[in-house]
Amino acid sequence: MAITEQIDQPHQEDLQRLRGFRLLDDDFLTKCFEGDPKYIQLVLRIVLEMPDLVVVDVRTQVFVENLLNRSVRLDVLATDSTGRKINVEIQRSDKGAGRKRARYNSSMMDANLLRKGEKFDELPETYVVFITEHDVIGKGKPLYHIGRYSFDTSESFDDGSHILYVNGAYRDDTPIGKLMHDFSCTTPDDMYYDELAERVRFFKESREGVSIMCRAMEDMRNQTLKEGMREVARRMLTAGRYALEEISEISGLSLDEVKKLQAGQSA
User: Fold this and answer.
1) Which of 5, 9, 38, 90 is most buried (most C-beta within 10 Å)?
2) Assessment of whether the complete model's pTM goes beyond 0.85
3) Other CB atoms within 10 Å distance of the CB of residue 193
4) In the structure, what pLDDT confidence band is assigned to residue 52 with cuts at 50, 70 and 90?
C-alpha cells in the first residue's frame, strides 16, 4: 500500500499540498532544514562561495523580540565554525524581500548579538540572505552582494555586515544555477544535489516524514485560526462594549490571554 493511502482521510488535502511543495516554500524549507546542519551548509557553501564553510548550529523560525518596536521571525539562523551568523529568508513575493526588510533583519541580528559589557569589536560577522522566486533586483545576475561602501574612497566600509539576494529564477550549469533549479523542484528525482533530494524525499515519500509534515500543516492552521481569534478579541476590546469574560467566550481565548491583549493595547 502506498504511503499516501495509509494517511487518514482528513489529511488527504494536506497530501495534495505536500506534493506541490518546493524548497522555495518557506514552511517546507524550514522543516527540511531544521535539526541537521548539513543541508543548510550545502546551500551556504554555494551561495556564499565558501566551499570550506562549516555550519555548527541551525535553528528555524527564530523569533527575535523587540520589546518596544517591531519584532521579527527569521526563517533560518545558522552559525558557522568561525562564529558568523547567517540568516536565510525565503521569499516568493517580491514585496516580502524589500531592501529595508533586509536592513531591518540585519539590524535586529546585531542588536541581539552582544551581551552587556562586551566590546563592539566582538560583534560577529553577519549575513542576511534572501532567496527569492523572482529576480527582485532585475539585473539578470544569479547573486547580488550588498555591503556598506565609502563613496569618497571607493572602498568597502568592511564592518562585517552583508546582505545577499539570490535570484531564484536563475538557471545554468553552475552550482548556483543548479541549486536554484533544485529549489523549484516538486519531485526529488529531478534534483541535482543528492543531499537535498534525500531530505525532500524523506518529507514527501516516507511515512514518518509525511506524518511530520501533516502535523506541521495542522499546527499552522491552528496557529492561523488562533491569530484570527486574537484579532477578533482586539477589535472587541477596542469597541469597549464587551466584558472580558464575553470576549473570552466568543473568541475561544483564555481570560488570561484576553487580559494580556488588553494590557498590550493600553501600553
Assistant:
1) 90
2) no
3) 19
4) very high
